[in-house]
Specification:
By secondary structure, this protein is an alpha+beta fold. It is 17% helix and 33% strand. It contains two helices and ten strands; from the N terminus they run βββββαβαββββ. The protein has helices at 64-79, 105-119; strands spanning 2-5, 10-13, 19-25, 29-35, 40-46, 86-92, 125-129, 133-140, 146-152, 167-171. The chain has a five-stranded mixed β-sheet, with no helix packed on it. The radius of gyration is 15 Å and the shape is globular.
Length: 186
């Protein structure tokens, strides 16, 4: 089954054939949790750094300061996963240099998410963050592999919306986002 994660949304799955996707991470940040033991994965498409108040349609996955804990609780509740067994990876959060984001949302999203993960004692791998390329993620629950498809951002000098994919990079248990430890158990 294919799960599409929209802006501010999330998905959690352990279906052996499932694929979780999110598209065009620019200033937004993709947070991926994976448990090799349970073959369970969670993905969030984080839009904003801080939750001041949530409206009726908002989800905790929309905000960098509360998403990490929310996603951890979802994984624990749905699949019995603990924080110490998770492989955590971050994607997106393009840099403001180059004139595309005068509010520095990408940098703020990453900074707040790092703080949140640190407060929880969770260790993560910044697999593909910053820069001037949007990222589409295609994650496979059976293996933990995350494919990253990059496209140049229009605001970056030399970037083009019409440009094709800059390339596909695979991460996960067999790639750069290999097993990382944790300091505390949830």
């Amino acid at each position: 089954m294919e799960h599409i994660v929209g802006i501010g949304a999330f998905a959690v799955s352990n279906g052996p054939e499932d694929v979780i996707k999110t598209f065009a991470l620019a200033t937004c940040v993709g947070l991926v949790y994976y448990s090799m033991r349970k073959r369970a994965m969670a993905m969030a498409h984080i839009q904003l750094p801080i939750c001041r108040a949530m409206s009726g349609n908002d989800k905790p996955s929309r905000f960098a300061d509360i998403c990490a804990e929310f996603l951890l609780k979802e994984m624990a509740f749905k699949h019995g996963v603990t924080g110490r067994e998770l492989q955590i990876s971050l994607y997106g959060g393009v840099e403001s240099k180059g004139g595309g984001d005068m509010f520095m949302i990408g940098e703020k999203n990453l900074a707040e998410l790092r703080r949140s993960l640190g407060r929880l004692g969770l260790i993560y791998k910044e697999v593909d963050v910053g820069g001037h390329e949007s990222r589409t993620l295609v994650a496979h629950t059976s293996t933990g592999i995350v494919e990253v498809i990059k496209r140049p951002m229009a605001f970056h000098p030399g970037g083009s919306r019409a440009g094709g994919a800059a390339g596909v990079q695979r991460t996960g248990p067999q790639g750069p986002a290999a097993r990382l430890g944790f300091r505390r158990n949830f």
